[in-house]
Amino acid sequence: MILKKWDKLPPEMQTEEVRKYYDILRKKSVSLFFKRVFDIVVSLIMLIILSPVFLILAIAIKIDSKGPVFYRQVRITQYNKKFRIFKFRSMVQNADRGSQVTVGNDSRITRVGKLVRKCRLDEISQLIDVFRGKMSFVGTRPEVPKYTEQYTPEMMATLLLPAGVTSMASILYKDEDKLLDGAEDTDKVYVEKVLPAKMRYNLHEIEHFGFWRDIGTMFKTVFAVLGKEYPDTLAADSDAENKTEKQEVNAND
C-alpha cells in the first residue's frame, strides 16, 4: 500500500488538519507495505477455509427471508471513494429505506439475522472486500456517505487509509446499537455523540499507526468477541485532564 502524493488527494482532504496525519503515515511506508501484503494473503486463506460457512449462511439467509444473500450498501473508504460493501444480510429487504443506524431491538432484523449479528458473522463476508483492496483488516469502519458528509476536517484524515473490518473504536463500541436504544432520533444521537467518540480513537490509531499494532488490534477483537472488556482509556485520560484543569482553576480562585 502506497500513499498518494499530497497534491493527488481529493481537494476536501488537502487541509491542515489532514496534513498532520498524512505526514505521520508517509513515514510508515514499510508498515503500509506489509499491511497490504498481510491483507491479501490472510484474506485469501480465510476465504478458502471459511467457504463452507459462507455456503451454510447463504442457504440459511435465503430460507429465512426474501432477498439477496449479501447486503451491498454503499460505503466510503480510502480517499473518500465509494464502494459497495459485502455483508451477509441480517435484515429484511429494503431495510435501509429507514434509519441507517441499527438499534438492539430493531424490528427489521430477521430471525437468522439476530444470530448472525450476535456472532458477528455478517462481517466475515468483508474478507472479499479486504482481498479486493477496498478494505483492510484494521482501520476505521466504513460509514455511509450520509455520515461522512458530516465529518469535521480532522475526521477526514481517517480516509487516508482503507476502511477496516475492525478497530479499537469497533471493539469499544461493539454494542453501539444498545447505546442507541430508546433514542427518539437515532441518526442525530449517532452523529452528535457516538461518531465523535469513535473518531477520537480512529484518529489516535492513525497517530500511532504500525503493522504490529494492527496485529494486536486483531487479537483484541477476537478476545472482545469472546467476552473480554477493554477500558475506554482515551475517555479516562480526558476525564483526568478535565479534573486537573478544574483543580487548577479552583486553586487559582
Low-confidence stretches: 239-250
Helix/strand/pairing category: mainly alpha
Major sheet attributes: 2 strands, antiparallel
Whole-angstrom Rg:
19 Å
Shape: globular
Share of β-strand residues:
5-15%
Mean of all residue-level pLDDT scores: 86
Number of strands: 6
Distance between the termini: 54 Å
Which key features would you list for this structure?
253 residues; 6 strands; 8% strand; mainly alpha; single chain; two-stranded antiparallel ribbon
Question: If you had to describe this structure to a student in words, what would you say it looks like?
Answer:
By secondary structure, the protein is mostly helical. The chain contains eleven helices and six strands. It has helices at residues 16-26, 29-49, 51-64, 111-118, 127-132, 145-148, 168-172, 176-179, 186-207, 211-225, 233-252, and strands at 70-71, 74-77, 81-84, 87-88, 135-138, 163-166. It is globular, with a radius of gyration of 19 Å.
Question: What secondary-structure arrangement, pairings included, does this model have?
Answer:
Blueprint: H1 16-26, H2 29-49, H3 51-64, E1 70-71, E2 74-77, E3 81-84, E4 87-88, H4 111-118, H5 127-132, E5 135-138, H6 145-148, E6 163-166, H7 168-172, H8 176-179, H9 186-207, H10 211-225, H11 233-252
Parallel strand pairs: 5-6
Antiparallel strand pairs: 1-4, 2-3
Helix pairs in contact: 3-4
Summarize the structure.
This protein is 51% helix and 8% strand. It has 253 residues and is mainly α. The strands form 3 sheets. The protein has a two-stranded antiparallel ribbon with strand order 1-4. Strands 2-3 form a two-stranded antiparallel sheet. A two-stranded parallel ribbon has the order 5-6.
